[in-house]
């Protein structure tokens, strides 16, 4: 017998439903094992009420998990809500339960004052039909270990490098946090991590290996044989999952330390008889020089990333005014106004008195024309302005419009670590 969504009760889960939720995930995804599921429930900030469930009678038939994150955004920290583990039992599908769960989740996300809802889906059509926007957060790179070694400069080899590469020690967790924060401040999409979150990651160990690059310590000037060796700061670290490099972070003052870590990762891959390596870390300039065609080939992510803006377009644009005005002032741009055409809406942006004013008005001669999804990608650094124009996703009417939008849009590329991708 077919059921309507009206015959199903939608509500937050309670503690007594944890095992039922786990069983539902096993039935739908055949994952995770119970010990992994229990680790997820120990994440900092986890609340069982963030799991929204659909119940028919006494049976749990649908589920979605709201995972809150703080992303580094366009000049600010942006609250984001991920929808994870959206699931409906097979015999209850095509009855509107999944749609009702998504609408319930978006309503809750708006109540939490999130600016963006995010989901990663292997089959995105369900979300595309409901107004979600497919975005392109970037690709990975695949390369053979021997080609990687050939691309690295001679100074990255252990015999020539000033850095010692070794497995990390837990007392160096503060150094890893320091390096990640330096990266996160300038990387759109990077999730904020506090100490509790780092310690939870260490407890879960979602990696096979963490390597660090340190300079050899200076020996103490003393005659005592057992004198303690002074601690040395970590200049870079690398996180590996199987044959994937998922994080590579270096001190901005020591970018070459990343090359020493890549040399070690490639050498270890050859010893493990791995035929290729994938790089999914941040787009560091020193790394982009190595992972480039034709030696390295791009790899698309296994899932499509979709977003749902939770702010009206005018309100979202007004929030962009402060960081965009700051960039115009910092670069001393001579062009201080431009139009913006978003499908059927027209806006005019103008820098005046140190502020960027927005009004709904004709664009004028100089303007940027694109879709809301493309503007979102540009504002988050998911694609460059040149890429959008070359592919036809955006159009710049004049050179002045190009100068204006090159000044206001972020120069850093979007990146979110796979370690921060929410689980069910």
User: CATH top level of the largest domain?
Assistant: Alpha Beta
N-C termini distance: 29 Å
Radius of gyration: 24 Å
Q: Provide the low-confidence segments as ranges.
A: none
Q: Helical percent range?
A: 25-40%
Strand order of the largest sheet: 1-2-3-4-5-14-6
Q: What is the global morphology?
A: globular
Helical region count? Answer: 13
Give the CATH superfamily of the largest domain: Gcn5-related N-acetyltransferase (GNAT)
CATH architecture of the largest domain: 3-Layer(aba) Sandwich
What portion of the residues fall into strands of 2 or more residues?
A: 25-35%
Structural class: alpha+beta
The major sheet is characterized as: 7 strands, mixed
Describe the structure.
The protein folds into three domains: 5-135, Aminopeptidase (3-Layer(aba) Sandwich), CATH 3.40.630; 140-300, Aminopeptidase, CATH 3.40.630; 311-408, SCP2 sterol-binding domain (Nonspecific Lipid-transfer Protein, Chain A, 2-Layer Sandwich), CATH 3.30.1050.10. Strand 11, helix 8 (257-271) and strand 12 form a beta-alpha-beta unit. Helix 5 (145-151) packs antiparallel against helix 8. The strands form three sheets. It has a seven-stranded mixed β-sheet with strand order 1-2-3-4-5-14-6, sandwiched between helices. Strands 8-9-10-11-12-7-13 form a seven-stranded mixed β-sheet. The chain has a five-stranded mixed β-sheet with strand order 17-16-15-18-19. With 424 residues, it is α+β, with helices and mostly antiparallel strands. It is globular. The chain has helices at 18-29, 34-40, 97-111, 125-128, 145-151, 173-184, 195-204, 257-271, 285-288, 313-331, 372-379, 385-390, 399-408, and strands at residues 9-12, 51-56, 59-72, 77-88, 116-121, 133-135, 140-143, 164-167, 209-214, 234-241, 244-250, 277-279, 297-299, 304-309, 337-342, 345-352, 355-359, 367-370, 394-396. 30% of the residues lie in helices and 26% in strands. The longest helix is centred in the last third of the chain and has 19 residues, at 313-331.
């Amino acid at each position: 017998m077919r059921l309507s969504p009206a015959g199903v009760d939608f509500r937050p889960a309670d503690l007594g439903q944890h095992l039922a939720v786990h069983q539902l995930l096993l039935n739908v995804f055949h994952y995770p094992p119970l010990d992994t599921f229990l680790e997820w429930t120990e994440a900092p900030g986890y609340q069982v009420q963030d799991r929204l469930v659909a119940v028919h009678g006494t049976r749990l038939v649908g589920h979605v998990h709201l995972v809150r994150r703080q992303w580094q955004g366009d000049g600010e920290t942006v609250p984001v809500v991920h929808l994870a583990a959206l699931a409906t039992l097979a015999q209850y599908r095509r009855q509107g339960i999944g749609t009702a769960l998504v609408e319930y989740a978006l309503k809750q996300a708006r109540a939490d004052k999130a600016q963006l809802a995010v989901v990663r889906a292997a089959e995105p059509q369900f979300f595309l039909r409901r107004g979600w926007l497919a975005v392109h957060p970037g690709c990975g790179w695949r390369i053979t270990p021997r080609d990687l070694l050939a691309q690295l400069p001679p100074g990255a080899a252990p015999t020539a490098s000033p850095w010692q590469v070794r497995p990390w020690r837990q007392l160096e967790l503060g150094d890893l946090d320091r390096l990640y924060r330096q990266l996160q401040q300038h990387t759109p999409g990077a999730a904020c991590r506090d100490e509790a979150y780092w310690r939870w990651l260490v407890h879960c160990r979602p990696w096979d290996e963490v390597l660090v690059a340190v300079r050899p310590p200076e020996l103490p000037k003393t005659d005592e044989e057992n004198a303690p060796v002074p601690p040395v700061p970590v200049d870079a670290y690398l996180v590996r999952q199987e044959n994937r490099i998922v994080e590579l972070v270096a001190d901005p003052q020591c970018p070459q330390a990343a090359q020493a870590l890549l040399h070690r990762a490639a050498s270890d891959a050859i010893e493990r008889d791995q035929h290729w390596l994938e790089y999914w870390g941040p787009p560091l300039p020193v790394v982009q020089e190595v992972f480039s065609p034709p030696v390295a080939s791009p790899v698309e992510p296994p899932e499509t990333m979709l977003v749902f803006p939770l702010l009206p377009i005018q309100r979202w644009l007004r929030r962009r005014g402060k960081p965009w005005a700051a960039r115009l002032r910092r670069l001393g741009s001579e062009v201080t106004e431009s139009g913006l055409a978003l499908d059927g809406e027209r806006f005019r942006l103008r820098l005046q008195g140190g502020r960027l004013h927005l009004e709904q008005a004709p664009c004028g001669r100089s303007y940027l024309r694109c879709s809301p999804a493309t503007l979102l990608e540009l504002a988050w650094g998911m694609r460059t302005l040149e890429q959008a124009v070359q592919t036809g996703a955006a159009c710049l009417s004049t050179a002045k419009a190009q100068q204006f939008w090159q000044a206001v849009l972020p120069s850093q590329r979007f990146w979110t670590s796979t370690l921060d991708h929410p689980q069910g």
